[in-house]
Model the fold of this input.
Amino acid sequence: MKTVEIDDPTKAQRRFGLIVIGDEILSGRRQDKYMSKIIELLNERGLSLSWAKYVADDPAQITATLKESFASGDVVFSTGGIGATPDDHTRQCAALALGTKTELHPTAKELIAGRIQSMAEGDPIKADLNTPENQHRFKMSEFPIGSDIIPNPYNQIPGFRIKEHHFVPGFPVMAAPMMAWCLDTYYRDLFHQENWAEQSFIVPKGIESTLTPLMERIEANFPGVKVFSLPSVGDASRGGVYAQRYIELGIKGNANLLEESAWIALRAGTQELGYEIHDIS
Done:
């Protein structure tokens, strides 16, 4: 299991997390597109991502991860593993993590039946819901007891949600609108509660150990402001100040605080240390 920790500056009391399930992500056969998308969806709504975890298609790992996240009280999005192939374990693992079982969700079954009929295009054999193939497809409507469905506008085969966890397919084209729907349907009251912003500038040949006391002083003098430092070895292809080693130094927090003296103090303090600063256009 790989974990990525991300700051949650806006809603410490209501954290948002992401679980990406799939061997194909960990092996590199596919690149993760879910984290950038959920960050985008959250940021558009004045929210932010607190953490992300990558988990293999292993029932023990999935169950343990979900048991921990259910206990956290966080709002969690989980992608992948809700199909009906042998490597799809998420539905059953979510039930195990909650100490319950899966059951057929009648609305989900109706939606899947409708999808089968539309794909049959008038072929009575393909449209026969009693064939082994179609009966197997109905496994995708078996969710942990007490689950609600998440509409899937792409192909009508729904995801499910239970206890602030939202389970969507392992296909970004489906997952993105489903995650957006969940945010807009269940968490609109959390949108844009804080006027959060961040600003930064480039410090050519900056040294973090030299800048650290300044960063600590800014945070101590301006509660609610966080200072960040992003070092780079340089990128010759970009040219200019980016060609050689540099640090991107900045602050984030309530926009009103950034517009006041915290930003000025960070810039002035950096220059007092003998560094040039270059604004990011």
